[in-house]
Design a protein that fits this description.
By secondary structure, the chain is of the alpha+beta class. It has a seven-stranded mixed sheet, with helices on both faces. Helix 2 crosses helix 5. The model has no long low-confidence stretch (mean pLDDT 94). Bound molecules: biotinyl-5-AMP.
């Protein structure tokens, strides 16, 4: 299926020493570069999470954005990033899980975050922040973790990048050809299922048991016996 015609994530890697945000840089060049172009920076001065939250990006981490040009904007693209990070970390001997919707955690702490942004019909920028050898923010002690901290020795960043690009290619292909297969893997890797969680929406807080991740990427929550679908969007999830 589509063999040989698929794009290659990482066909071109733009390496920067410093940038405000690789996502912002990628959005500026997205229309002019081929799909699969990657923007990588040693450090970001204004790395962003969702809703303008800050993403700490000192030297030593993997801060990158992939420019994709899918047929349609699809919120499930975030899972291409999450699964690729999960597979990469597994190869390094770690046991990661997805904290729906956009985090990867190891041993109860956040090691990576994904931020997708796009322009309908034009491009989607898939931003990935992965703590590799960088110090994690002191104010997030206990909440954030790096590969260095878990493995005990610094890792060659290029080796981590190479494995991540490999898995991004593989999962992007599955996403395009068999999205339901990708979602089955997401379900398998989502560690919050069965747990009681708190969903924080703009003006609303919901507490319930996470039951399932549906094929459209939404989370099924059991609130006192009533099932409710939570759409991926600007929601935060906390353990209760
Ligand atoms: C995310 O947002 O988790 C998405 C982060 C995406 C970062 C990448 S880096 C490359 C690309 N360029 C960008 O500018 N962004 C992307 P969110 O779910 O909103 O989580 C943000 C929260 O994570 C913050 O409020 C902190 O609590 C926490 N945080 C910040 N820096 C962190 C770090 N280095 N490691 C772990 N947690 C962190």
């Amino acid at each position: 299926m589509g063999e040989g015609r698929g794009i290659s994530v990482g066909i071109r890697v733009i390496r920067l020493d410093e940038v405000d945000s690789t996502n912002d840089y990628a959005k500026k060049i997205a229309r002019k570069v081929p799909e699969g172009t990657v923007v990588l920076a040693k450090r970001q001065t204004a790395g962003r999470g969702r809703k303008g939250r800050r993403w700490e990006s000192p030297e030593g981490g993997l801060w990158m954005s992939v420019i994709l040009k899918p047929q349609r904007v699809d919120p499930r693209l975030v899972f291409v990033g999450a699964l690729a990070v999960v597979d990469t970390l597994s190869e390094f001997g770690l046991s990661p899980g997805i904290k729906w919707p956009n985090d990867v955690w190891v041993a109860g702490r956040k090691i990576a975050g994904i931020l997708t942004e796009g322009r309908a019909g034009e491009y989607t920028v898939l931003g990935i922040g992965l703590n590799v050898n960088n110090p994690t923010p002191p104010e997030l002690q206990g909440d954030a973790v790096s590969m260095l901290e878990l493995i005990g020795t610094p890792l060659p960043l290029d080796r981590v990048l190479e494995r991540l690009l490999f898995h991004l290619n593989a999962w992007y292909k599955v996403f395009k050809e068999r999205p339901e297969l990708m979602m089955a893997k997401v379900r398998e890797r989502t560690f919050i299922l069965g747990r009681t969680v708190k969903i924080i929406q703009d003006y609303n807080v919901l507490i319930g048991r996470a039951v399932d991740v549906l094929d459209d990427g939404s989370l099924l929550l059991d609130i006192d016996g009533q099932l409710r679908r939570i759409l991926y969007g600007d929601v935060s999830l906390r353990f209760f």
